[in-house]
UniProtKB/TrEMBL annotation:
InterPro entries: GPCR_Rhodpsn (IPR000276), GPCR_Rhodpsn_7TM (IPR017452), Olfact_rcpt (IPR000725), Olfactory_GPCR1 (IPR050939)
PROSITE patterns: G_PROTEIN_RECEP_F1_1, G_PROTEIN_RECEP_F1_2
Positions of the G-protein coupled receptors family 1 profile domain: 45-294
Claim: Ligase is one of the keywords in the record: no
Protein name: Olfactory receptor
The keyword Transmembrane helix appears for this protein: yes
Known function: Putative odorant or sperm cell receptor.
A molecular function (GO) term: G protein-coupled receptor activity
UniProt entry keywords in alphabetical sequence: Cell membrane, Disulfide bond, G-protein coupled receptor, Glycoprotein, Membrane, Olfaction, Receptor, Sensory transduction, Transducer, Transmembrane, Transmembrane helix
Record's bilayer topology term: Multi-pass membrane protein
Major subcellular location class: membrane
Pfam families attached to this UniProt entry: 7tm_4
SUPFAM superfamilies in alphabetical order: Family A G protein-coupled receptor-like (SSF81321)
Length: 318
């Protein structure tokens, strides 16, 4: 009868299967080792930056405070996906609970969005410092820095909440296999028993809007920075500004290049394997590169990191 059909249409899926990277056991072990190494490096590198900024008083400036917050964000960004990915690689069943899957989806998207806004604030900070050096200390105060950081977190975590809630309310009654290594928007909507073109459209539009607006703002800021840098008479000053902004732009292009390929372009044409590779780049590769890119090009940061490492050696009982 119609009544029983309606009842069965209500969510009966209690868990999803994340296929991850199908392949022989040897490949699973190799991937497990590589991803674990990258995870440890990401945690170490980003924690070192946080400690360096905290312990070195010369780094208590907006640029470094933002960088430390960015590193804190990266730690959480990888932690919401990699531990589950590692367990999955060694697991035979490869299951994730319904609520676990949606929690991962929410945090992954929210932290990714927060990262977009963080990169905007960092671009704004560089723009002020290089284009308006005399007004910079009076504009970019510690107070404004705190407000901007809190806004990034707030907008990031509110931006996708509603759409993700609606996706979680869709009926999931049949297949529960996700051919991916994390709970992402397209595979989840595809598994729903009822077509939801409006939710899909809204979700895609929100993602595209956030990505396009933030990348335009970042590129605009750096274009103005570049124009100002080219007018700097001293080659040493030009060199320093170039190296700081150059390293920021490497991070931006890696992160945005991959998320745009994933969430802005029509993705139906991409193969599942391609989706996985693209996701792997922005969810695993960029967070491990960030500490290296930001700190290796920067003399003050290198010095502070050396202090952190030496400090750790001193703390160790000989």
């Amino acid at each position: 009868s119609l009544e029983t059909m309606n009842k069965s249409e209500i969510s009966t899926v209690t868990q999803f299967v994340l296929l991850g990277f199908p392949g022989p056991w040897k490949i699973q072990i190799m991937l497990f080792s590589m991803i674990l190494l990258v995870y440890i490096l990401t945690l170490t590198g980003n924690t070192a930056i946080i400690c360096a900024v905290r312990w070195d008083h010369r780094l208590h400036t907006p640029m470094y405070v933002l960088l430390a917050n960015f590193s804190f964000l990266e730690i959480w960004y990888v932690t919401c996906t990699i531990p589950n990915m590692l367990v999955n690689l060694l697991s035979k069943t490869k299951t994730i609970s319904f609520s676990g899957c949606f929690a991962q989806f929410y945090f992954f998207f929210s932290l990714g969005t927060t990262e977009c806004f963080f990169l905007c604030v960092m671009a704004y900070d560089r723009y002020l410092a290089i284009c308006h050096p005399l007004h910079y200390p009076s504009i970019m105060t510690g107070h404004l820095c705190v407000i901007l950081v809190l806004l990034c977190w707030l907008i990031g975590f509110l931006g996708h909440g509603i759409t993700i809630f609606f996706i979680s309310q869709l009926p999931f009654c049949g297949p529960n296999i996700i051919d991916h290594f994390l709970c992402d928007v397209d595979p989840l909507i595809t598994l729903s028993c009822a077509p939801a073109p409006i939710i899909e459209h809204v979700s895609h539009s929100v993602s595209s809007l956030i990505i396009i607006l933030t990348i335009l703002y970042i590129l605009g800021s750096y274009a103005l920075v570049l124009r100002a840098v080219l007018q700097v008479p001293s080659s040493a000053g030009r060199q320093k500004a170039f190296s700081t902004c150059g390293s920021h732009l490497v991070v931006v292009s890696l992160f945005y290049g991959t998320i745009m390929a994933m969430y802005v372009s029509p993705t139906s044409g991409n193969s599942v394997a391609m989706h996985k590779v693209i996701t792997l780049i922005y969810s695993v590769v960029t967070p491990v590169l960030n500490p290296f890119i930001y700190s290796l090009r920067n003399r003050e940061m290198k010095f502070a990191l050396r202090q952190v490492i030496c400090g750790m050696k001193i703390l160790k009982p000989s």
